[in-house]
Amino acid sequence: MNNKLKVLRAMRNWSQAELADRLDVSRQAVNAIETGKYDPSLPLAFKLARLFDMPIEEIFDDGHEGSDND
Amino acid sequence: MTETRNMKRPMSPRRKCYAAGIGLALVVGAVLGAVMQRGETGDGLTIFSNAPLTPGFATGAAILWVVGMIVSLAIYHRAVDDHEERAYLWAGLAAWYTFTLSAPTWWVLHRAGIAPAPDAMLLFAGALAVNLIVWLWLKYR
């Protein structure tokens, strides 16, 4: 799953470690999400959305467009 | 906002708990290994042999292993994050498959006289090695 985490983090000038601290996860977890090697759990996705003050679907993209048509 | 970027930040309660769980497991393993290596007769690496143990020592080692592992694992699982939990679960599954494939295979070959008697600790060590490799790969790749 694609995501904008790296961009959002860079816009705030946060390191991976700093973002990890704010989410209370390991730096490896942030790196794995940013590189698409790991999709976060729903609670962690909500935590990210609250931290960046954005809807989850604006941070993560599952590659499906027009999901309302499904 | 950025002035904290390079500052050493205090550990969160979760990270403290995580460090305590890992630390306790390492201490239990180190104490058990050191005592086992020092306290028993035999040459070489006694810890990896099947040499007899005194009942008192064996009982103490068994209690230390079971209690130490239960406590450290309980602490670890309370503190671990989503990403590492996933790595841990896949690593555990890989270790279980390793045991599932190797133990019956070895046992049946032994019954046919093709292989020596199955060694429980060798099977455990093999499964543990697979567990560690998969966990490290999934956590740090």
What does this structure look like?
- The complex is a heterodimer of chains A (70) and B (141).
- Chain A has helices at residues 5-11, 16-23, 27-34, 42-52, 56-59; strands at residues 2-3, 60-61.
- The radius of gyration of chain A is 12 Å and the shape is globular.
- Chain A has 70 residues and is mainly alpha-helical.
- Chain A is built from 5 helices and 2 strands.
- Chain A is 54% helix and 6% strand.
- Chain A has one domain (2-54): 434 Repressor (Amino-terminal Domain).
- Chain B is mainly α.
- Chain B folds into 2 domains: 12-80; 82-141.
- Chain B is 73% helix and 0% strand.
- Chain B is flat.
- The two termini of chain B are 30 Å apart.
- The model of chain B has no long low-confidence stretch (mean pLDDT 86).
- The interface between A and B is medium-sized, with 20 and 16 residues.
Sequence-ordered SSE layout with sheet pairings:
The complex is a heterodimer of chains A (70) and B (141).
Chain A: E1 2-3, H1 5-11, H2 16-23, H3 27-34, H4 42-52, H5 56-59, E2 60-61
Antiparallel strand pairs in A: 1-2
Helix pairs in contact in A: 2-3
Chain B: H1 13-39, H2 55-79, H3 82-111, H4 120-140
Helix pairs in contact in B: 1-2, 3-4
